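Q: What would this complex look like in 3D?
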Amino acid sequence: MSAPPYRLDGKVALVTGASRGLGRRFAQTLAGAGARVAATGRATELLDGLVGEIGEAGGTARAFPLDVTEAAGVRAAVAAVEETLGPIGILVNNSGIAITKPFLKFEESDWDRVMDTNLKGAWLVAREVAERMVAHARGGKIINIASIGASVALGQLSAYCVSKAGIAHLTRTMAVELARYDIQVNAIAPGYVETDMNRDFFATSGGKDLIRRAVPQRRLGQPEDLDGALMLLASDASRFMTGSIIAVDGGHSIA
Ligand SMILES: NC(=O)c1ccc[n+]([C@@H]2O[C@H](COP(=O)([O-])OP(=O)(O)OC[C@H]3O[C@@H](n4cnc5c(N)ncnc54)[C@H](OP(=O)(O)O)[C@@H]3O)[C@@H](O)[C@H]2O)c1
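A: Here is my prediction, written as structure tokens for the whole assembly.
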């Protein structure tokens, strides 16, 4: 019997928003599976710390400053990654922000910040990387990070939910167009997972109550709960999957 095809030796993986939270874990997991990882984001000190940790654990990673809202910067950073590490085979489009405010209080600038980061930013990075994947003619894996908010209307998160619904459909539209180049485009839709984005709220009694009421598995997710979906979508195990949105949410979206 052959071993499951989960090793990523020889692959280059770019992770956006690797400085914290889920992106940090994604970078560690991909490096642990043998990929050379480009850890990107704006907080360069945090990225340098992550790269050091990955190196100490026997993996390979490099830090690259990248603000997903700046098109010229995206182009330059992706070029720098390929010059340093080689052709990108895996992209994890993870950068994202949430602004929590009632719909009636939402300002135009709030809307623009969320959309520019979560939707336009993901599109800019995906377009840049996909163009290079096509040119290299080696196929590739693009993994967009959506959210339970793509399918469930979460209170006080209107722009966030719309941006993530956009990510889910961007995933499908890209999947259709890029299939002919052997590029698979899929998404992970996490439920509530403990990170800087939500730690304070889930420590409150309101946050704990929400988890008990809304999540059938009755617990808050941890970044490592996404390892399985990430490795499926990053590896050859998902070779006949494209345009899929995988919920990893303790049952939240079906309850
Ligand atoms: N945690 C959850 O419960 C949950 C659930 C569903 C979906 N998600 C999604 O998962 C992703 C990661 O969330 P998280 O919980 O890990 O959040 P987090 O801890 O707040 O981390 C967000 C990451 O996004 C990066 N980022 C923000 N703005 C950026 C920009 N303009 N350019 C580049 N990077 C930027 C940040 O890096 P820098 O500050 O260094 O730029 C940071 O590394 C997001 O897309 C989020 O919507 C999270």
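A: To summarize the key features: The two ends are 38 Å apart (CA to CA). The pocket of NAP is lined by residues 16-17, 19-23, 41-43, 66-69, 94-97, 117, 121, 145, 147, 190, 192-193, 195-198 (CB under 6 Å).
Q: Very helpful, thank you.
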